């Protein structure tokens, strides 16, 4: 059998080599990049990371391929549990083009649909129901938050609504936002806002879209384009309908029966209730009592609230909820997942803390100049 070399094994497991080395050393070894790993130990490490070790000779599929196969199997098995889920939408655009007004108008359309009197709490995201279908909106202050989340690998958004003021047309931040949406490969809906103002020019905006290779549907392109006037509440219904249409095309699905996981939208400390985090569930169902790990933080879900401030017992895919019971404030964009129990969550969070501390020490210790140790 060929030897299991640290460097290759780390690659096969998708781990950073130093992470694997530290794990091996914790288990009492003295591993370095080119060390060989004992098969029994390798099996354990692989298992811990959810892999099945299978040693193959050169040219045959190795650990990685085997692992991929296993994962695919899981996906296939899961497909029968997949049910459609609401889209997660964010609104992007140039300053003052009406992002906030549009969010408000959409929220109002929802209130008019029967939730009158409900006091909406700002939790960073909210969900509306339109003709029996839900849509989650991220209440982001702009594309800065959007790209921050993306930088963390958290692609929580399915659809980006690009707001373009009908009088101004495309502006620098419109283009920047468009670039972000395209890089994130999210579906695009263009809302041409301020259609009520003097100087509104829908055709000019459409021409600008065409120049940017996102020609509107009625110009032979594929981009859904909806003229609106946010402050007048005009066109809001069709915008929502178009978002739902786009969601249908995307066939968004999730398995509500899986272990819960998702993304942190924002977090803060409440004087009375301690750290709070608004999360969006992406997979599975999050329930009160669940144990969560999120980077170096963990939680035992004590209580959850929806965007109406109501106590909820569970949250299904795409639902935004505010969670109480955290050990600290997880960062926005961080991924959380449910684990067996609170002890496991705490253990995993501590491991991550340790790893972060080590990484920090390691980078602090990186010599700017050649040190005495290096010379010897
Ligand atoms: P920032 O958050 O600062 O980037 O701005 P924003 O994109 O959220 O724009 P906001 O919703 O704050 O709107 C900016 C200004 O445009 C406000 O004075 C709004 O009242 C006005 N406005 C927004 N939508 C419309 C519209 O459809 N028609 C008219 N006439 N004014 C609008
Ligand atoms: Mg705003």
UniProtKB/TrEMBL annotation:
Gene: infB
Domain Tr-type G positions: 84-253
Protein's UniProt name: Translation initiation factor IF-2
Region (G-domain): 87-235
Similarity comment text for this entry: Belongs to the TRAFAC class translation factor GTPase superfamily. Classic translation factor GTPase family. IF-2 subfamily.
Subcellular localization: Cytoplasm
GO molecular function: GTP binding; GTPase activity; translation initiation factor activity
Keyword Protein biosynthesis among UniProt keywords: yes
Residues that hold GTP according to the record: 93-100, 139-143, 193-196
GO cellular component, one term: cytosol
Parent sequence residues shown: 260 to 635 of 845
Function: One of the essential components for the initiation of protein synthesis. Protects formylmethionyl-tRNA from spontaneous hydrolysis and promotes its binding to the 30S ribosomal subunits. Also involved in the hydrolysis of GTP during the formation of the 70S ribosomal complex.
Top-level taxon of the source organism: Bacteria
Keyword line: Cytoplasm, GTP-binding, Initiation factor, Nucleotide-binding, Protein biosynthesis
